[in-house]
Amino acid sequence: MLRLAVTGAGGFLGWHVRVLIRALGWPEPIVISRADLADADTVAARIDGLDRVLHLAGVNRGEPADVAAGNVELAAALARGLRRCAAPPAAVVFANSVQAGNGTPYGDSKAVAAATLANVGLDLVDLRLPNLYGEHGRPYYNSVVATFCRQLAEGVRPEVHEDRELTLVHATDAAAALVAAPAAGPWDATMPGLRTGVRELAARLSGYAAVYDAGEIPPLTDRHAVRLFNTYRSHRFPTRRPSSLPRHADRRGELVEAVRAHGGQGQTFCSRTRPGVTRGEHFHLAKVERFVVLKGSAEISLRRIGHGDVVRFTVTGDRPVAVDMPTMWAHNITNTGSDDLLTLFWTNELFDPTRADTWPEPVERRAGTPAVTV
User: Fold this and answer.
1) Which of 129, 220, 289, 318 makes the best surface tag, with the fewest CB within 10 Å?
2) What does the pLDDT look like over 250-275, one tens digit per residue?
3) CATH class of the domain whose range is 243-360
4) Which residues form the signal peptide (predicted)?
5) Which strands, in side-by-side order, build the sheet including 165-170?
6) With a threshold of 0.85, does the pTM exceed it?
7) Hey, where are the domains in the chain?
């Protein structure tokens, strides 16, 4: 269990790092803000005696001169604080880029930043990251995946102006490498990459969107398929409300099509919940999960990890709808009726108790728990 400090905690990668730390059950990391970095003594006080400092803060886009200066100065500011620290951390982990030293303002500034941190004299883990994607990425900034997903969520067809090869790594895998996470969950610190072209990526995400917009689950045949699909879903939620389900009625009664999955694993189970009882209070990092209330009435509540706002849906068995749990959102379901609640659950994977991908987290955030603003 490591005690960590993080710069750039409010960014895309920083949020994924904090979610992973929450899943691991480690102490909340010390957040070093850009305002903190302006004062070396403040930095020194905040990192004193910790195990690791993760330097994630950086400038990815903007005017070339601003990108170059920003990355260099952020590293220099952290270095000044490290030098003033009475009990400096055992290691500094730098979220570098595979573009480091490639002759561009961004790449060269990342190389200078790495050299600046290395000159402090502490153990430096210089992790060169490829293109990252994942839930809640910032479109037109973090990655082309985020851009395509947001466009599709808004009903816009992605346009490919330049087709090129990409190696994509999910942000949770990068987070696992940054914090040296044990192999105990759906993450992979070796950062397995997906090699794809931009045009192929646009077609793949468009296919997922077309199937999912029809209320169905696209083929989830490998880990990148699951994670790309979850990334797309993160850009739809909570704007898109629960999906209506096809219903067929005749003199015998009614039939509801709860799940139509186009490929991959899957498991279905049902629960009966007593009045007033709440199930859930956890989140998933990768698992796709669908709730369908078949009898009774309930409230489904969700909260994005590190944030305070709670999204609530009122559902009833009289008009069944599909409510899909977004990854990295704590969720629960409460029986709000006077009779037992019957709920159908579907997940995209077979349950493995040794790698359940179920991490305890109350939906109602505890007072005093820090929130992350992205």
Assistant:
1) 318
2) 899 889 999 999 999 999 999 999 99
3) mainly beta
4) none
5) 131-133, 165-170, 194-197
6) yes
7) 4-205, 243-360
